[in-house]
Amino acid sequence: MADLKLENVQKAFGDNPVIRGIDLTITKGEMVCLIGASGSGKSTLLRCMNLLEPIDDGNIFLDGTDISEPGKDPQPVRQRIGMVFQSYNLFPHMTALDNAMLAPRRILGGSRAQLRPALEEMFTRFGLHDRMNHFPDQLSGGQQQRVAIIRALAMQPEIMLFDEITSALDPELVGEVLDVLRDLRSQGMTMVLATHEMGFARELADKVCFLHQGRILEQGPPDQIFEAPNEERTKAFLSRVL
Amino acid sequence: MPTQTRRQSFEARQRKRANMIAAASTFAVLAAIVLLVPLAPGWENVKRSFFNGAVFAKTFPGLLNAFVMDVAIFLWCAPLIAALGLIVAIARDLRSPALYPVRLLAIAYTDVFRGLPVILVIYLIGFGIPGLGLPRPWNSPYIWGSLALILVYSAYVAEVIRSGIESIHDSQRNAALSLGLSGGDTMRYVILPQAVRRVVPANMNLFIALQKDVALLSFIGPVEIFRQAGVYKSLMANFTPYVGAALIFLALTIPATRYADYLMNKQSKARS
Amino acid sequence: MKFWTTAAALMLASSAAYADSCATGKTLTDGMLTVATGNPAYFPWVMDDAPETGKGFEAAVAYAVAAEMGFDADHVAWIRTSFDQAIQPGAKEFDVNMQQFSITPEREEMVDFSAPYYTSAMAVLTTKSVVEAGATADVASLKSLIWGADANTTAVPMLGDLIAPEKSPLLYDDNADVTAAMQAGQIDAALFDLPTALYLSAVVLNDGALLGQFPADRGENPDQFGMLMEKGSPLKECVDAAITALTENGKLAEIEAEWLQATTGVPLIK
């Protein structure tokens, strides 16, 4: 059971407030999509959940434990919450397999031989078995992003955060990455996505949150948000992107 | 339809013109050197003192032999410089407050040793530390002279590596941290391997400079190529041995410099 | 130009000695003999680094030779050069250069030397602790020491010829560095001309000692000092004549007796 609960989370970069009091609950097995214009705070919110950005005020609870307490070691939390980035951020000096193997070897322990079968299975599952020993610059964007997802999954996280992971991809490569997400969804992975793929959000999300200027202006099931948004700003945003 | 576009024929004309100017000016400069220098009233004397065939033939094998010492000193200094440079670079990036003194020390170290002339460090360490009364073989000028080179060059290498570390985009650090890796593991497995690779050409230039500066050890006793050339110069009252030594250095350093430039170009192309 | 030479000639015509000198018109500056020494010039060759006082062996010899050539003390000018400046090609800034330059056939290919004005014994400079450790004045014992020398001197080839040390010697730029290395225990012994060794042992080193000497009149490889001149210098004949005269009339021996310590106290190396 892994519930993530945000209470009045605030974050500013210098004098510039980016997250201005966000409350959000993500329950186990749920898929939550964050939508909103660029600069609305989606990415920052995800980075806060993973503790890559320390929050200024408010609380983040993971299974009831406050993980946002200042000075607390973020490492154990990050091991439980995986994250995939827009620009893949694979380690360019390692093969795809080594990218995925680094964290488990250093943290979970175990030899390469012990870890390899499970990882190999994952590469096969996501159609990358013949790309395991390639370096990132030998892979397409879609392949790299799939490797990045495998790398995060290799730590067997309880929650996965996806930060606009298809935004940097050529349109024809978006599908193969979304298929991976569908696969994860069907496995019951708890996921939070910042995304511009409205169709995908509508198809699979349990909950959609519309962010505007660092606040969640509106949240609800996809049908409600996409069919009958309450807020004018939500309507305006959707009319621009749909 | 013409075989060349207007632009192409214009550019061809420009290229031809540029080539002709380059050829003509190169020829003019070479001609000036070859024809005019020997006309200088002192040329015969300079030739006898600096480009003396007999002296060259007599001293060159000895110089080559002495150069083995330069290469040997280089070979045992280089790995130690790489190791110490790496340690200092990492120490300069320590963020833990408990380790602040280490960081401070690393900063002071790089400032001091980059701020001193190499020869001064060689003198001070090469004569100073053995003067404390160390027994043999621990007072050898080879040890302390090498240490002086190691200290100076590690400071430069550390700065180069640090610039490499800083050139690695934060997204790499974030990606590693988001997996739950510790700061140390992130540095060791993700940042450093990339940083070190990125600064290979810059470090190669430093190591070429090191090979040249090994000659400075001659000031505290070791008879390497520069000193051997000096001995020949003194014995024969002739500077030709220095020219021989210069040729030997160039035979090593020019290919190495070219190779470093090649790597540098390759890398900047790969990044653009 | 002509005006100045005429003027100089007129001015100097008053000096009777000058008028019929063999050096006339052959020096750098008419009527002046320009002598180069080291920078600094060392005891006992030049006292207190002040050659113009005429004190010290080489300073005194310079004035004696100058007088013989027809230059009184007021017409001797001093400049300083390094060894490298002394041998570099091109116009020299001195008429003669004296700083214990040893005469060798190889060097004579490139520069001219006067007749020798001094024949030096070579001495082994060491420290008392090395002597206490058992070093003795015989070649067999000397072979096993770690040797040093000034790289710009003929001590380097002599080391090989006279002693042939087991370990390759360490070489330095000047006396100061040789003594620093000896003080640091990096070398056991160094080969110098005897007067320099005496000075370094007595004044510079803390516990200096002279182990022994290879006497000046040894048959092979005598170390003779000559005044260095530009190759083909027109002055050579005149300088040689002066030195020969000083040698024959015993003046040179007198100067040597005045400035250079008796060397008989230093044991001969077997």
From TrEMBL, chain A:
<dbReference type="GO" id="GO:0016887">
    <property type="term" value="F:ATP hydrolysis activity"/>
</dbReference>
<dbReference type="InterPro" id="IPR003593">
    <property type="entry name" value="AAA+_ATPase"/>
</dbReference>
<dbReference type="Pfam" id="PF00005">
    <property type="entry name" value="ABC_tran"/>
</dbReference>
<feature type="domain" description="ABC transporter">
    <location>
        <begin position="4"/>
        <end position="238"/>
    </location>
</feature>
<keyword id="KW-0029">Amino-acid transport</keyword>
<dbReference type="GO" id="GO:0015424">
    <property type="term" value="F:ABC-type amino acid transporter activity"/>
</dbReference>
<keyword id="KW-0472">Membrane</keyword>
<keyword id="KW-0813">Transport</keyword>
<dbReference type="InterPro" id="IPR003439">
    <property type="entry name" value="ABC_transporter-like_ATP-bd"/>
</dbReference>
<dbReference type="GO" id="GO:0005886">
    <property type="term" value="C:plasma membrane"/>
</dbReference>
<dbReference type="InterPro" id="IPR027417">
    <property type="entry name" value="P-loop_NTPase"/>
</dbReference>
<dbReference type="GO" id="GO:0005524">
    <property type="term" value="F:ATP binding"/>
</dbReference>
<dbReference type="InterPro" id="IPR050086">
    <property type="entry name" value="MetN_ABC_transporter-like"/>
</dbReference>
<keyword id="KW-0378">Hydrolase</keyword>
<keyword id="KW-0067">ATP-binding</keyword>
Automatic annotation (TrEMBL), chain B:
<dbReference type="Pfam" id="PF00528">
    <property type="entry name" value="BPD_transp_1"/>
</dbReference>
<keyword id="KW-0029">Amino-acid transport</keyword>
<feature type="transmembrane region" description="Helical">
    <location>
        <begin position="21"/>
        <end position="43"/>
    </location>
</feature>
<dbReference type="GO" id="GO:0043190">
    <property type="term" value="C:ATP-binding cassette (ABC) transporter complex"/>
</dbReference>
<comment type="similarity">
    <text>Belongs to the binding-protein-dependent transport system permease family. HisMQ subfamily.</text>
</comment>
<dbReference type="InterPro" id="IPR043429">
    <property type="entry name" value="ArtM/GltK/GlnP/TcyL/YhdX-like"/>
</dbReference>
<dbReference type="InterPro" id="IPR000515">
    <property type="entry name" value="MetI-like"/>
</dbReference>
<dbReference type="InterPro" id="IPR010065">
    <property type="entry name" value="AA_ABC_transptr_permease_3TM"/>
</dbReference>
<feature type="transmembrane region" description="Helical">
    <location>
        <begin position="112"/>
        <end position="130"/>
    </location>
</feature>
<dbReference type="InterPro" id="IPR035906">
    <property type="entry name" value="MetI-like_sf"/>
</dbReference>
<comment type="function">
    <text>Part of the binding-protein-dependent transport system for glutamine; probably responsible for the translocation of the substrate across the membrane.</text>
</comment>
<keyword id="KW-0812">Transmembrane</keyword>
<keyword id="KW-1003">Cell membrane</keyword>
<feature type="transmembrane region" description="Helical">
    <location>
        <begin position="63"/>
        <end position="91"/>
    </location>
</feature>
<keyword id="KW-1133">Transmembrane helix</keyword>
UniProtKB/TrEMBL annotation, chain C:
<keyword id="KW-0732">Signal</keyword>
<feature type="domain" description="Solute-binding protein family 3/N-terminal">
    <location>
        <begin position="32"/>
        <end position="263"/>
    </location>
</feature>
<feature type="signal peptide">
    <location>
        <begin position="1"/>
        <end position="19"/>
    </location>
</feature>
<protein>
    <submittedName>
        <fullName>Glutamine-binding periplasmic protein</fullName>
    </submittedName>
</protein>
<dbReference type="Pfam" id="PF00497">
    <property type="entry name" value="SBP_bac_3"/>
</dbReference>
<dbReference type="InterPro" id="IPR001638">
    <property type="entry name" value="Solute-binding_3/MltF_N"/>
</dbReference>
